[in-house]
Amino acid sequence: MASQLIREWSGIQQFPSATQTKMLELLGKLKQENVSTLTILVMGKGGVGKSSTVNSIIGERVVTVSAFQSEGPRPVMVSRSRSGFTLNIIDTPGLIEGGYVNDQALEIIKRFLLNKTIDVLLYVDRLDAYRVDTLDTQVVRAITDSFGRGIWKRSLIVLTHAQLSPPDGLSYEDFFSRRSEALLEVVRLGAGLRKKDMRVTPIPVVLVENSGRCNKNDSDEKILPNGTAWIPNLVKTIVEVASNGSEGILVDKKLIEGPDPNQRGKLLIPFILAFQFFFIVKRIQQGINHDISTEVKPAWAVRDA
Question: pTM of whole model > 0.90?
Answer without folding.
Answer: no
